[in-house]
Amino acid sequence: MTRATRRRRLPAGLEAAAAALLDWLADPAAPRLCLVGGGGRRRSAARLLDWLARQGDRGGAARERAIHARVPLEGQSALGAAWLLADRLGVVAREPGELVRILATDPRRTVVVLPGLHQAAEPGPLTELVAALGELGHLRLVVEAPAGTDVHASLAALRPTVLDLDPERRQPEPPAPVHELPDLDDPAAVCAADPFAVTAAYGIGHGGDDHGGDDHGGLRQAWLRAGQSLCRDQTPADRALVLLAALGDGADPRLRPALAELAAPAPWRVDWARVRGDLTPPWPGPVVALAVGAGPSAGRLLAADQLGTVRLLNAEDATPAGLVPAPPARRARALAALPDGSVLFLDERGRLHAEHGTQGPSATRRLTEAVAATLARHPGSALAAAEDIVLVGDRMGSVHAFGLTDVHQAALHSGRVTAVGVVGTPAPLVHSGGADGTVRAWAPGRAPLAVPAAERPFPVVALHAAHTPAGVRLAVAWGDGLVELYGSDGGAPLGFRPGPPVRAVAVTADGAVVIGMDEALLSLTPGH
């Protein structure tokens, strides 16, 4: 018998309970919530749920038996559990309510196993989270909540299926585990500790809020800002890097050099980070779209917020450098800067707007006017531009390359094109990303490559490519919060997870990767 077979084997004495669980999973009319309890110190309920998660995680498992996430709740806070569940399901959520809202928008059947609710550090708030998730019609939840516990009594109001392995209550439930806390003021101790214990210590009593209580020199606020990334399995150096990128300028001045030293072995270097509340230089506001300046704006970044304001920032430190005139009452979905000083905006309706530079040639103006006229009839979903070419993606999966003399088109994706990028010289090289989880490379006028340049089971949120001293570099932001940097050598990409949802990325001429989010803007450079 192989080790894998032994792991999938059902613990003795639980055959009838396992059959009942599988019948519940297969019954479309059954309650969406199943409470499992009993077994006392033998932990029969936990062992049964572990078996269910293992057998349902197999690639060949039938659809009705598939398990999409297992999140142990022993010792967990509501915030830590929400981050872990979001990570397991491939989404990014900053707090429990946001997780519920995100999952409500995805109608796919999802089955989640949650052992140990009665032993959580925050059983009350976690029970509220379970109840909110249980209201989503496409979610099925298997929760360990023994009869006689407060969490069972609270969830019983939802009329769940109940599977009690010890109906006569012959055996007491084991006590909840006790986690030893590190020194929450010591960055080295925090980076090396159990991240969920740190999350519970920083979050409990504050409701996961960034304000109030002891901020531990700024460590707590940085942790709560980037927590979903910090709770992933990683080295202390990688955790220090994420914390450093989330640290505000009001933090204890000793923390930044301490975290930088701890992060030295990590593959990235933080050039600068501007987070909500920073004053010197000021946080530029939420970022929903980024572009690298060209021509008169070379050496600068263009950053658009959710209200349509477009700011110029110095790329070397994000200090303010002015504003770009933008269409009134239009939110930018994408930005592009041209060498003649023109700035292009794709608004939330998929229409193109342009702010032309004073030295712009008439050919550029004619090109952008022609593209704008086309998008007025057929809205776009993504935008990029370089020199004398404008790239537009659409919701059907095609990318259109508008030039001064011709137009090329390629069907590159299944579903909406979410991002496009172009490197203009010596010949245009286009990269596109889609809701289908693929990144494609294409040279206008040629057949697209049959194999994706990158592919993951998550939608592409943003991408950008540029010439750098190390060659062409492509940055891709994925829907699960991962940002990857690809080189032209075909090697493995370099990844970074900042923690919050990523809205935009850009690669500067010196090879830095700029990441835009709702509450932060940061610049990283590969360190090794």
From TrEMBL:
Protein name (record): Uncharacterized protein
Superkingdom of the source species: Bacteria
InterPro entries the record matches: Quinoprot_gluc/sorb_DH_b-prop (IPR011041), WD40/YVTN_repeat-like_dom_sf (IPR015943)
